[in-house]
Amino acid sequence: DTGVSQDPRHKITKRGQNVTFRCDPISEHNRLYWYRQTLGQGPEFLTYFQNEAQLEKSRLLSDRFSAERPKGSFSTLEIQRTEQGDSAMYLCASSPLSGRGQETQYFGPGTRLLVL
Amino acid sequence: DQQVKQNSPSLSVQEGRISILNCDYTNSMFDYFLWYKKYPAEGPTFLISISSIKDKNEDGRFTVFLNKSAKHLSLHIVPSQPGDSAVYFCAASGVTSYDKVIFGPGTSLSVIP
Hints:
The structure holds two protein chains of two kinds. By secondary structure, chain A is mostly beta strands. Chain A has strands spanning 5-7, 10-13, 19-24, 31-37, 44-50, 53-57, 65-68, 75-79, 88-95, 106-107, 111-115. The mean pLDDT of chain A is 91. In chain A, 34% of the residues are buried. In chain B, the strands form two sheets. In chain B, strands 2, 4, 5, 9, 10 and 11 form a six-stranded mixed β-sheet that branches. In chain B, a hairpin with a 2-residue loop joins strand 6 and strand 7. Chain A binds chain B through residues 4, 6, 31, 33, 40-45, 48, 50, 55-56, 91, 93, 99-102, 104-110, 112, and chain B through 4, 9, 31-32, 34, 36, 41-46, 49, 51, 89, 91, 93, 95-106.
């Protein structure tokens, strides 16, 4: 395992459908993050896990969004009743827990979502 | 309120010359700064970082400079190569064991052969 992987890489769905994305972090990394990126913007923080605990959620994460990391390994991000405004690149990142802060996050290739 | 700013959306540089990408931040609690490079259809790739206790960090062709009093950092690429053409994101995080990493909007660098 040499990096963060995400599946699928691309998803096209119709408005109102539910979608689920998966992220597999670097195996020894305790922390896992989800970001959303739209055209012309940097990644925007959505939520963060330390092991299986979800420690923070952004205001961007509406009630239609839910994320899990059940065993502290892979994570899923589900969007219910998708809207056209959900179209974006969804990025996952992971970092080790060093206790020193200032940890570098390593990103996966992203899942490009298009809601029609 | 954008806490990390990259005021140049794009930059073109001749191959072999120096590329200078600039970043400004507003939150004085940031103490760790990172640069990421992103190619189309890929996730951001970590490039280089700097802690607030330093004013310079160098890694091969890449050097990051930090001016805390001005809340400004810059990334220098010398010499620039066509493969450096990408979007570069400046990012910053705070002092605690976990603080959100805040990204700037990015600067698109084109290195012309």
